[in-house]
Amino acid sequence: MSQLGLKSLDERQRIIGETIIGNLDESGYLRRELENIVNDLAFSQNLMIEVDELESVLEVVQTLDPAGIGARDLRECLLLQLNRKDRHDPAIELAKQVLEQQFEAFTKKHYSKILKKLDISEEELKEAVEEIVRLNPKPGGSTQVSSRAMDQVVPDFLITIQDDELQLSLNGRNAPELKISPSYAEMLKGYAASKTKDKKQKEAILFVKQKIDGAKWFIDAIKQRQHTLMVTMKAIMGYQKEYFLSGDETKLRPMILKDIAEIVSMDISTISRVANSKYVQTPYGTFLLKSFFSESLSTDSGEEVSTREVKKILQDCVDAEDKRKPLTDDRLAKILKEKGYNIARRTVAKYREQLNIPVARLRKEL
Hints:
By secondary structure, this protein is of the alpha+beta class. It has 3 domains: 4-133, no CATH class; 157-292, no CATH class; 296-363, Arc Repressor Mutant, subunit A (Orthogonal Bundle). Helix content is 55%, strand content 7%. It contains 18 helices and 6 strands. The chain has helices spanning 11-22, 34-44, 51-61, 74-82, 90-101, 103-107, 111-118, 122-133, 141-147, 182-193, 199-239, 241-246, 257-264, 268-277, 307-320, 329-338, 345-354, 360-363; strands at residues 157-162, 165-170, 279-282, 285-288, 296-298, 304-306. The strands form 2 sheets. Strands 2-1-3-4 form a 4-stranded mixed beta sheet. Helix 4 (74-82) runs antiparallel to helix 5 (90-101). It is flat and about 100 Å long. The model has no long low-confidence stretch (mean pLDDT 82).
């Protein structure tokens, strides 16, 4: 809005510009149809305009910082940013050509198709793609993120290693020590010691007694909760001892809620509530307890292993692959089979999606 005030606009154009800015989403895009904004201005501002006039003011908004603001889609956003760069740079001009003529092929990484259509070398395309990749797909995000408070995780448990032994403690910040105020206990004694008790005094004694009993019950409930948390976490820590000592994800044992519930003699629903909402700080980072639970798989040798172990190997394979020829799900399944994990291709695809790894075609680089 402050940048708009520095532009040479008349009152009518200023109102249109402010309306456009008011319709930008948190990423900096104008998702609302121009015809709908024309209607908005007619109803809310009693301003009758045509789409052409709206587009001319939108062009002014698109010159504001950050570059790419006011775009109606990703393609326009990237082109707006390229238009502000050196027009005499061949890589910039080719990048614009790719976005204008071969945008769909670019998003699907059909590089061979782009090379053929634009009749260019692989090195030229690589330079153009590098220019595009440097651009910001969410120009409004830079201001939006900085203004938003970051969520901070406060761990409920602390695991440390002393003399090769695991030490567990409950984070005191989440569970302060609770006591009953002695003044209320003294008040109750004073009322009880009084020889003459009228109706109001008896009501006061009953009221204070109820509140003290309620406070005692609450303190006992908190202690019971802390006990439940500690017992559950100790069972998890014991079950996954090798992992907590080494930090090696491949040492994680298959573990389901039922395993821990049986150890601590509690209901599965109780263990589920603890696992879904509590964090533990370890020497290797802070994790949600839920992340230590996983199903089991059998290897060729009959050994039970955690699906987390398989996912770690899957991630390592993708990290180490040749990005010019990424590993397909079939190839990943074969690699896992060679390592002794007999897993179907569709299961590999499921694990890959859970790890937020795109398909091989979209991982391809020039």
